[in-house]
Amino acid sequence: MEALPDQSKPRIDAHQHFWNLDKVAYPWLTPDFGTIYRTIEAPELEPLLQAAGMDGTVIVQAMNSYEDTDYMLHTASRYEWVAGVVGWVPLDRPEEAAKKLEQYSRNPLFKGVRHLIHEEKDPDWVVQDSVIEGLKVLAGFGLTFDVVAVFPDHLKHVPTLAEKVPDLRMVIDHLAKPRIKERQMEPWAGQLKAAAAYPQVYAKVSGLNTAAPDNWSAADIKPYIDYAINHFGADRLMFGSDWPVANLAGDYGRVWLETNKALQGRSQGEIEAILGGTAVSFYNL
User: Fold this and answer.
1) In this protein, which residues make up the domain named Amidohydrolase-related (predicted)?
2) What is the pLDDT of residues 75-111, one digit of tens each?
């Protein structure tokens, strides 16, 4: 195996979660999720980060609630390796969102907002007028928006958001979950290319293992990563483990190793950007 990137450059896991079932309600997290249906917190992740040589992480919301955001910010205050938090405000209630962002933005660890779009019954939730107004408020604070774009319902809306809120920096989570298991490229590829045409749109090389075949390897995810690099460039792509969801199809170490294998052959600069540099600049870490 080729040498891993120069350790002097920051390595950032731009997408991981924690949840405490005693402190916050997560209705989506049911016993069907097996091994991750339990409280999972920072002490469990810490040794995995050390083993991978990670310098920092971004905790991403796991519920559309203030309780979850407050819990993440509290966790971030206790662990130096948490570099940022992507929280939640009610984007469809712009006035309330503005008041909460006034409060949250005072915390330097609060970097952006996400909403569990895929849990909404309406697949077009994110492009309704009230949400567009909420996203304009978010952009006004200079904060970022993580787009949960579970293919095929949401990725197609990214160009609309980019047109309507041009000063909002967005990142598509998990490359919008392409159909890796079925080895399908289209229509995902065309929609990702359309989103990549907007320079304020970024994407995360994350969550691919849970969209891949059971015995997945770098060979399964590489065509999708290569396609994303070809259209976004490495300076608009960032690595994320999606831990602990990653444990449903492997573990932290496997995701890290196979992603690195999939990046072999790329230039040092490209690899360093994806494994840390892009996250630092996008989230202002």
Assistant:
1) 12-285
2) 999 999 999 999 999 999 999 999 999 999 999 999 9
Model's pTM, two decimal places? 0.95
What does the alpha-carbon distance between residue 159 and residue 201 come to, in Å, rounded to a whole number? 9
Q: What are the structure tokens assigned to 127, written together?
A: 């492009």
**Residue 203 burial by CB count (10 A; 0-12/13-18/19+): exposed, middle or buried?**
buried
In a domain, 145, yes or no: yes
The closest of 11, 272, 270, 285 to 144, measured between CA atoms, is 285
For the domain that residue 205 is a member of, what is the CATH number? 3.20.20.140
32-53 pLDDT per residue, tens: 999 999 999 999 999 999 999 9
Domain assignment present for 4: no
